[in-house]
Every structure is written in structure tokens, then in C-alpha cells.
Amino acid sequence: MALRNIVKEGDPVLRKTCREVTEFNERLHVLLDDMAETLIHANGAGLAAPQVGVLKRVAIVSVDDDYFELVNPVIIKTEGEEISPEGCLSVPDIYGTVNRPYKVTVKAFDRFGKEFTASGKGLLARAFCHEIDHLDGILFKDKVIEYCDIK
Ligand code: ZN
Q1: Which tens digits make up the pLDDT trace of 40-56?
Q2: In angstroms, what is the span from residue 17 Cα to ligand 1's centroid?
Q3: Within a domain: residue 88?
Q4: Which residues have C-beta under 5 Å from ligand 1, the single-atom ion?
Q5: pTM of the predicted protein model
Q6: Is residue 126 part of a domain?
Q7: Is 131 a catalytic residue?
């Protein structure tokens, strides 16, 4: 495993639409492992492949004891809404409130190409939405209602 450099806002790679993964091979596994190490090192709740300069529909989410590897993820169901602060490893030291669904269900593939669904509430739902937005070139700043000081 290796740490990857997290690209920051202003890099055009963060504004591109990512491509679907079609091959669930060693290269994908290395990417996921490197992203996990990078996320732990950065102490974040999630990381999307474009944040390490890779334009593939791959993201990881780590909230409390929940850890998900999401390949080609799609939100298939949402319930409720919640306005809460969030931040982004690509937008350091900036936090703002964003309206997200309170609960989401995501359909995705694991690293071996097996389809699964995962549901999350609150922060986990927020992380799913935030990371999947990255795959379409959307940053949380695009959706901020109000900037705030605290995380
Ligand atoms: Zn982010």
C-alpha cells in the first residue's frame, strides 16, 4: 500500500465526470488499498478516486465502525433530510452546512464485482452522498447553505 497525494480544489480533475469501472482487477484493488491508507492518514470520513487523481467511479467511506468500498455506486433511495456541517479533504479548513437526505440506500459493487446495497443514516448517509457527488465533479461547496467555523 502507498499513500497517494490528495488533490485540492482548483485542480480540474475534481470537476470531471468519472468513468465506470469495468475491470475488477489488481489495479482496482491497489487503488482501493491506497485510498484506504490515504484516508486513515488524513483522518477523513470518505475519499473518492478523483481526489487522488483517478477518474474512476470508486469511493470509500469510513464512519465510526462502518467501512465501505463503493465501486460504481448509485443512490437508489433517500428518506428525509438533514442540514448539517461538512468538509472535504480537497477543500482544507473550510466547513459549511449542506442539506442531505437523512437516510440513503446505495447500490454498488465490491472490489470483486459483486453487487451489494448499503444503507446509512445521518453522517454515514452524508458521507455516501458527498463521495458519490465527487464522481460527478460536484464539491460540497457547490451546495453549501452557510459556511461555518467548526466541523
Ligand atoms: Zn470531499
Answers
A1: 999 999 999 999 999 99
A2: 14
A3: yes
A4: 88
A5: 0.97
A6: yes
A7: yes
